[in-house]
Amino acid sequence: MFFPLSKLLGFFAIPSNLVVSVGILGLLLLPTRFARAGRVLAFASLIVLAILGLSPAGNALILPLEERFPRWDATRGAPDGIIVLGGAISPDVSAALNEAAERLTVAAELARRYPDARIVFSGGSGALIYDEGAEAPLALRLLESLGIPRARITLEDRSRNTVENAVFSKAIVQPKPGERWLLVTSAHHLPRAVGVFRKAGFPVEAYPVDWRTRGADDALRPFASVGDGLRRSDTAVREWVGLAVYWLTGRSSELFPGPRTTVIETRQRD
What we know:
This protein is of the alpha/beta class.
């Protein structure tokens, strides 16, 4: 099976994957002459998993990402179009919505609020190992079930990552100077996504959704279960690594993209 290097790097950019891999290596070393090293690796991996899973580390890591862009200002008027990034549907679980479901539910709400805006859903298959098929057809069914006419929805079903989201969406949309396009994705993903769209020459306005925290109050809040903490830590570290890699490889406009405005804005929670 062909396994691209980028996907291998993506696998190890998830801290829990890396720590578990180190722990397994330690266990494999136990029956060998390197048993002492194996015990150290196995014990260290358990300690790191406990820290990432129970401490506030995940929240502290994700907060700067989520706070980077404020809520979109509706007083600026109706947008010409709305780009919705994939990642809200798990094709391998009977097309079930996941934690990022708000990307699609908010897209439907925006489509009803702005009936003249074009709707573009960008999402192929980002599967690490097995290809479960493109997400776009599943998103289309959901948007139609939420009352959005098929004629208003344009699908981009080839993208496998955020860079391809930007490049393929731009090729389909061919945005004109002066047009205003919203980019709807999870708040923690917006810095990387906006940087990639800017680099592709597709100016967008950030529309954050799917916050995983309640703001600065969560910075020191520990997790009740290891699983919840690990998921939060994995999400945050993956984004930070993605920001660095995209910038170093010239695929993002900035290391940590943010609002391009002279006015300091703060996010308002509902």
